[in-house]
Amino acid sequence: MGSIVAVNAALALALLAVPALWGDFMAWQIGLYLLYGVAAQGVGLAWGRGGFLPLGNAVFFGVAAYAAAMVLNATGGALLPNLLAMLAIAGVLAALAWGLAALVFHGRSDSGPFFSLITLALVLIVAQLAETNPSITGGFNGYAGFAPLAGLDPYGNLYYAIVALVVAVSLSLMALDRLPAGLVLRALVAQEGRLQLLGFATNRVKAWAFAGAAFITALAGTLYASHQGIVTPQATGFVLSAELVIWAAVGGRLHPLGALFGAVAIGLLSAELRDILPWWEVVVAMIFLLVVLLAPGGAAELVARGARALGWQRRIPQPAPCPAPSSRAAGATGALRLEDVQLHAGAVHILRGLDVSCPESGILCVIGPNGAGKTTMLKAITGAMRLQSGRILLGERDITNAPIHAALDAGIGRKMQIPTVFGGLSLTENLQLASLAGRARAGDFLHPATLGWQSPALARLMAHPAVPLAGLSARDAGSLPQGHRQLLELGLTIAAEPQILLLDEPTAGMSPEETALMVELIRDYQAQTGAFVLVIEHDMALVAALDARVLVLHQGRNLAVGRLDEVRANPAVAAVYAGGEK
Amino acid sequence: MEAALLIGLNAAWQIAALALLALGLAIVFGLLRILNMAHGEFVMLGAYAHVLTAQAGLPPWMALPVCIGFVGLAALAVERLVVRHLYDRMFDSLLATWALSILMREAVELVWGRAYRNVPLPVEGVTQLGPVGYPSYRLMVIALIVIVFFALWRWYRRSLTGVRLRAMVSNPALARASGINTARLSAMAFVTGCVSAGLAGLILAPVLAVEPNMGLDALIRSFFALVVGGLGTLEGLGIGVAVVGGLQAGLSAAFSQTAGYLGVLILAILFLWRRPDGLYRRR
Amino acid sequence: MTKMLLRLEDVSGGYGDTLVHRGLSLELAAGQVLGVIGRNGTGKTTLAQLIGGELSLAAGRMVLGGRDISSLPPWERAKAGIAVMPQTGMVFDALTVAENLALLGPVTLGKLGERFPHVVDRLSQQAGSMSGGERKILGFVRTMLSPARLVVLDEPSEGVQAENIAHMQDTIAEARAAGLACILLEQNISMVEALADSVIALDSNGIVYKAQGAQIDRKAMLAAISI
To answer: Residues C127, C129, C134, CA angle at the centre, nearest 5°?
Structure first.
């Protein structure tokens, strides 16, 4: 926490020095850009940590400003009721934002672009409402004539209230990055699919990010009312919404302070240059376009890259390792059974009455020609594709068409064909995330000690002398070679100790040595946990090395089951593989 | 009777205008999956073609070639410099075209200012339809849309370019393997979509408030029509503009313009929640 | 020594940084059929995509009729005379059978129409609504009708009835006699045995078996691909 406090103390000192150095008018002006900056930090949170871009975030800013102004008007600006009202306004808007995001992202996880347009439409409508209801909002002329918060002079002491808000928001956002909740958000942007398989309902994670964004933006809006003394429809307009995005992009959406600096810097420059250069706004738009195309991380990323080039390394203190609480995935019991599963994708019939009974423990290899339905079977089990009919049972429990994020708690872990690791996050962060999957409860995400949790299964894998991941803890997981990524993804999958482990071609792209290691790790995990492990594989040498029962799929049905020598001797299997009669 | 006819004509007008506006987005977003946030700005550029033509001292009918040239060149530049690198990356295309849209609005504001422009109706007067008189220009636009949609539908089904386009959308890899230069075809489709947006702006300019920010409304309503109707087919577009245009016309007539807007927004949110593929799904 | 139509020199390629082929070399003359066998997952489809240009080479060179085509996009390769029938997505599902064929330009079905009458019968049916085997046949017909010097067929017989496989073999044999070169990527050993002038078998480690003409041995091929 030390560095966060130091950064924010420096920020506070610098801001507090403004009135003394440049006078009250400058402080008033910077105060406005700071409020815009906080609102842009909200956009930065949704965009940089939620992975979706709200194009209408001024709606929270403007509505909060109107609401705060009305409360100020009713209470004469009294301090305590208004502080409470400001929090309540931001809270209500955050709750609405949560609901909207959870709804829109429920249907499909790739609705990000649609969401952006929904928010844009929202801001246009709310601005129109504000313009066309003058009895409530004052219409075009604005809502005015209310007292500022606690009678603070907008050109005087209100500035310090703004600085307090800026520091509180910045401190919270920087602290969030060090908390498990912040790690989950960054993981969401990096690799949503893997996060779902780790048991997270990602539409709700996005909803939290958007709620946070709305809360921060709304808080800035409530102070804006006192600062301006008037609220006009422009406070909830699309122009401001667009500017919030520009500031977050140019300043850098990935750093908690990027948007704040972006807003202040561009705001100050615009104040200076707007009247001198008639084409200034075109220049700002041009800068935005260039940032989007050439430097998507914005100024903060350029600074960070420069710092790295100079040899500055950010050292993030690691919490003390401690044993993780038991995993919900490890407690699940019961054998996996597929009964007459039918699954179509469009016109193509992939699974055609697939019946599979798995043992409760042991290893099963699944082989079969392309298009047999092997990967689709795993997708059906984890809920990534919906069955048209049939049932999937886990012991006595019916898990047919359960959502993907429910699979882990049910005891199912799946490793993908092309490894999905959290690129952009360090190896250590990948492991931290895996260690809390299936174990953490709501409160744990706000507790830094959760990041010290050690999953026994993961620790055992990492401690294996042949696993080449030791010493790479600071490496970006996305930059690891394929073989390393396969091993890391295995680690991510087994960390929660699922009782049903589904591995889709775990050795694809691996060297013979790495393949041998993978076999050893799979067998070791099975022996340690008594889990049931299902492996899809093409490499018959590997199937033989796993020394397991074999299931042959063909055209969406179960063609044969047995030991490898038995299925080899099966004439139906031989025909499929040699291409005789079909 | 009279009232019913008038309401029907107004709904037809709203739907026709929306169909005209949405067509370009249906091509660029529905077929190419580029979420073109600058769609509305191409509509806006098309409307300003009237202003450009007048400034150049050309006769008003020259606005048509001016519009096609002006918007087409802008679209070509955008495709070359920005969009070309963003096929298959919907989020990045959204962001980049959003940046572009801001740039285009600011640039137009710099050149022509923020003030509203009045574009005179090319055809004045009212046509008597039984008991009801309706603006002739609107009736002409409705007729034009019906003809254009029918012609387009036939072209898309029958012409070789239509087949190639559908082939590219259906299976890009096989299209490439069959000798179709998908990079060029995509670029052509993008420019066509943008020019179509520009022509919508040109045609609707006399009845819209022509100003730099006019494109946002066109973008949002076109987008909602596509969400409701479904992407990738003219049928879906037709259903979408009918539902969205009809609902908006109805709610606006019954309550207020804002209510019309709000109703459409809620409808779009419900669709994204419960039926993300829209009403008309391509088989 | 016949002049080689296609030559792959030390070709490496795959998906992103996952290389499927490392240093693969092969060559093929006009009027020859090269059978490529191997279990799934051994890189047959990757090879087809590398030749067609859908995947780009990570290293090596590809020459067609003396012209270096290594960096040509797929449509240029199609114009240079390569027709690829992919393993999946071998037809345009959204188009009718007639439109699938119309994309090739003005063509006459001729003998193909007699051999595969259902293609003629269903010209107005949407390709996506046909069964797997029927789509394979349409994809095959499309590929064989295209004006190519080299066709690459990725598992054309998968899911196709024996009678139609025989028709496919006749079609390929005739085209070969007319000078067409063909790369036949198959798991169907009988089809490869019937047609191939030379055979290679792929495994995760590259080419594990190579034979020409009379040396092609069914047992050895079976050993190379059986489980």
So the answer is: 65
